Amino acid sequence: MALPEIFKTPYNPKDHEKRIYEAELSSGLFNPDNLENTGKPPYVIMMPPPNVTGVLHMGHALMLTIEDILIRYKRLQGYRTLWLPGTDHAAIATQVRVEKDLQKKEGKSRFDLGRDDFLKLVEKFAFDSHDTITSQIKIMGASCDWSREAYTLDEKRNQAVNTVFKKMHNDGLIYQGYRVVNFDVKGGTVVSDDELVYEERDATLYTFRYSPEFPIEIATTRPETKVGDTAVAVHPDDPRYQSYIGKDYSFDFCHVPVSVKIIADPSVEKDFGTGALGVTPAHSLIDADIAERHHLPLKQVISERGRMINTIPALDGKKTLEARETIVSWLKENNLISKEEKIKQNVATAERTSGIIEPLPKKQWFVAVNKSFSLPHSAIPGIESGSTTTLKEIMKRSVESGAITIKPAHFAKTYFNWVDNLRDWCVSRQIWFGHRIPVWYRNEEIVVSGDKPEGEGWIQDEDTLDTWFSSALWTFSTLGWPEKTKDLKTFHPTDVLETGYEIIFFWVARMIMMSGYALGEIPFRHILLHGTVRDAQGRKMSKSLGNGIDPLDIAEKYGADAGRLALVYGTAPGTDSKISEEKIKGMKHFANKLWNIARFILENTEDCHSRLDLESIKKNPSLTTADKAILSSFENTVKKVEADLEAQDLHTAAEELYSFVWMKFADEYLEVSKLQLKNETQKESTQKILLYLLENSLILLHPFIPFVTEAIYEHIPDRPSTLLLVARWPSL
RNA sequence: GCGCGUGUAGCUCAGUGGUAGAGCGUUUCGUUGACAUCGAAAAGGCCGGAGGUCCGAUUCCUCCCACGUGCACCA
Question: Most CB atoms closer than 10 Å: which of A8, A369, A558, A640?
Answer without folding.
Answer: A558
